[in-house]
Amino acid sequence: MAALAEGEGEVGPSGSQEGLRWGSPGHGNIYFWGQMQIPRQISAAPCLSVTSRGCGAAGLGVLGPGLGQLCQRRKQLRRSLHLAAMMPDLPFLPFCTLLGSLGLGCVAFVGAWCQHWRGGFAWDGSARMFNWHPVLMVTGMVVLYGAAALVYRLPPAWRGPKLPWKMLHSTLALTAFILAVLGLVAVFNFHNASGTPNMYSLHSWLGLATILLFSCQWVAGFSAFLLPYAPTWLRALYKPIHIFFGSTILMLSMASCVSGINEKLFFSLKNGTASVPYKLLPPEAVFANILGLLIILFVVLVLCALANPSWKRPEADSLDTHQPLLGAEH
């Protein structure tokens, strides 16, 4: 294969995917398979050479409507290459193992905090009922929600039918939502039983807004991607919006949990009501502060995984790429 100048590309079809290579002075030729960078040449078929000038209207008229899609792919690959150059090339599975350990650590820490320092758990309107609130929120809105966001980054999800992974993504998100609703029930019941006002703090406003946004996100995603009513063009239009709000909700969940931990420590370790006040940093405060840091670290690493283009599922032209849950052909 001949060397390419900067900005010049070739595309060779192979099955349902395309192989592309782009010239880059000083780095040799850069090869891609779908959206994955690979260190070998693609020689499946005679290649169509396209230069930057070919992306104009004249080139579109000569080479046909498929050129527009090729040019769009080229722009996406250039953006992906730019992002990949700024991010470390880490193996995904060890990174995923680290994330799983951090997620379990968050759940273990919040459970240990409420059990050891806050008196354990009950469902009777007492302070022990309140303890379900942080456990359910951290487990659902942070850990399970983060896991749902990473489903399509798992290497097994890169091949074969996409529908089972859609189902897993939706189920994890729905489970997270159910746990969040139970967490709301726990805190509202405790407040009502103890005569504490509801919805007066910034933490409560932020948390409720996050859950309401999450409910809209889940309903919209289920309707667009798993029901047979949305046309393909609408799914394609909504997909980047769904991804954006998915990351936004995860960040809002992190902020809600961290502010809730801080608020609980302020109320529980006030001067005159605790043997060691918060300002003197008792062991409970140290433990809960570490919990907050673990939550932040978990969310940041999830967002890094989502932003890494080399871990993104290649969009093959398979039959079920846009297949809904209902209405599939048999």
From TrEMBL:
Membrane topology: Multi-pass membrane protein
Entry cofactors: heme b
InterPro entries membership: CYB561/CYBRD1-like (IPR043205), Cyt_b561/ferric_Rdtase_TM (IPR006593)
Stretches the record annotates as Disordered: 1-21
Annotated TM spans: 83-112, 132-152, 172-190, 202-229, 241-261, 286-307
EC number: 7.2.1.3
GO CC annotation: late endosome membrane; lysosomal membrane; nucleolus
Alphabetical keyword list: Electron transport, Endosome, Glycoprotein, Heme, Iron, Lysosome, Membrane, Metal-binding, Oxidoreductase, Translocase, Transmembrane, Transmembrane helix, Transport
Chemical reaction(s) catalysed: Fe(3+)(out) + L-ascorbate(in) = monodehydro-L-ascorbate radical(in) + Fe(2+)(out) + H(+)
Name of the protein in its database record: Lysosomal membrane ascorbate-dependent ferrireductase CYB561A3
Species this protein is from: Gallus gallus (Chicken)
Lineage start: Eukaryota, Metazoa, Chordata, Craniata, Vertebrata
